[in-house]
Amino acid sequence: MAEATGMDVNKLKRVSFAGITIEKLRIGTYRELTDRELSRLKRDYVNPSKRKAPNPAEKVRSKG
User: Are 50 and 43 spatial neighbours (Cβ–Cβ below 8 Å)?
Assistant: First the structure.
């Protein structure tokens, strides 16, 4: 995206995607996605036609 606009990128850090953050991770570490996170990613990004309507009673929680 940056290249398309003529900008040079020296450093890029993604801190969040689809509600999954790096908030509580130490530098150089990672964590496994939960089954629930993986299911949501597959549903919303691999096959979005199977996406169900959002449940207003369901709250998004950050796990770390």
Answer: yes
The whole-angstrom separation of Cα 11 and Cα 8 is 9
Q: Which long-range contacts (CB under 8 A, 24 or more apart) does 29-36 make?
A: 31/64, 34/63
* DSSP conformation class of 45: I
Q: What is the pLDDT of residues 7-50, one digit of tens each?
A: 888 888 878 888 899 888 898 899 999 999 999 999 988 876 66
Query: Residue 18 corresponds to which tokens in the numbers above?
Result: 């689809």
Gyration radius (Cα) of the chain, Å: 15
Domain ranges of the chain: 3-50
